[in-house]
């Protein structure tokens, strides 16, 4: 099983096709069969959650976070098919990865959908789905795309949420580090180290989500190992 997971990590990092998997790993058919089985069973999400909670305890924090940072990333799709949309703001035709991290930047939840869905609409679905997994999470940092009363009105009846909007100054020129916002941007950079996520190569939303979770699992396991062998 470890070699099967190592093969999935290799595909995620290298971005290679299934058939280009080196012979030192189990057969391609075996690895792919386990990938779809674990994806459908929600195993990748479960592993990611356990690793996040473990790392938070290592850092001296509560296992379940109370604050998070939300943002989205639009990526192009390919000729593989599947649903897609056009993000008019970023001029990208494809899908949008909507992620929620804790204040350390560890991935808590990811939702993949078409790129034409606005951030404030996607944020509602993310927060509605994550509240059962992390019931103490109530304070969320977001960018200007989630500003306005539409998001707050949609969250009525989903518990008490505190949405803190962090906007970039209109007078700022060039790059500017924004409080809390840099945390989620760094997470996107961590995930981007896996070439499989350079584009959305998958036909199904489920596979797109699974590969993002595998990239997160890779980062979390490497960080856990550094603590264990320090």
Short description:
InterPro entries: IS402-like_dom (IPR025161), Transposase_11 (IPR002559). The chain has helices at residues 2-14, 28-41, 43-58, 119-130, 149-154, 181-192, 205-228; strands at 67-76, 85-87, 92-102, 107-114, 139-142, 162-165.
What is the level 1 CATH name of one domain?
Alpha Beta
Largest beta sheet, briefly? 6 strands, mixed
Please bin the fraction of helical residues.
40-55%
CATH topology of one domain: Nucleotidyltransferase, domain 5
Identify the notable features of this structure and list them briefly.
42% helix, 7 helices, alpha/beta, six-stranded mixed beta sheet, single chain, 6 strands, Nucleotidyltransferase, domain 5, 230 residues
Explain this structure.
The structure is a single chain. The protein is of the alpha/beta class and 230 residues long. It has a domain at 65-202: Ribonuclease H-like superfamily/Ribonuclease H (Nucleotidyltransferase, domain 5, 2-Layer Sandwich). The protein has helices spanning 2-14, 28-41, 43-58, 119-130, 149-154, 181-192, 205-228; strands at 67-76, 85-87, 92-102, 107-114, 139-142, 162-165. Strands 1, 2, 3, 4, 5 and 6 form a 6-stranded mixed β-sheet that branches. Helix 1 (2-14) packs across helix 2 and helix 3 runs parallel beside helix 7 (205-228). The chain starts with a helix and ends with a helix. The model has no long low-confidence stretch (mean pLDDT 89). InterPro entries: IS402-like_dom (IPR025161), Transposase_11 (IPR002559). It comes from Sphingobium xenophagum. This is Transposase.
């Amino acid at each position: 099983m470890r070699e099967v997971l190592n093969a999935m990590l290799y595909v995620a990092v290298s971005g290679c096709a299934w058939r280009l998997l080196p012979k030192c790993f189990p057969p391609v058919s075996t690895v792919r069969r386990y990938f779809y089985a674990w994806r459908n069973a929600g195993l990748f999400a479960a592993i990611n959650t356990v690793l996040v909670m473990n790392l938070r305890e290592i850092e001296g924090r509560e296992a379940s976070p109370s604050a998070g940072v939300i943002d989205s990333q639009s990526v192009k799709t390919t000729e593989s098919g599947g649903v897609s949309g056009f993000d008019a703001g970023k001029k990208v035709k494809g899908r949008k990865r909507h992620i929620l991290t804790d204040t350390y930047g560890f991935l808590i939840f990811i939702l993949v959908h078409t790129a034409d869905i606005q951030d404030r609409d996607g944020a509602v679905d993310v927060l509605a789905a994550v509240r059962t997994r992390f019931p103490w999470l109530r304070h969320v940092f977001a960018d200007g795309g989630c500003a306005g009363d539409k998001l707050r009105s949609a969250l009525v009846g989903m518990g008490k949420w505190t949405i803190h909007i962090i906007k970039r100054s209109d007078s700022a020129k060039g790059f500017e580090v924004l409080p809390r916002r840099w945390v989620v941007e760094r997470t996107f950079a961590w995930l981007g180290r896996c070439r499989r996520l350079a584009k959305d190569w998958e036909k199904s939303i489920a596979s797109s989500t699974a590969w993002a979770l595998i990239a997160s699992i890779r980062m979390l396991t490497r960080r856990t190992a550094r603590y264990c062998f320090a």
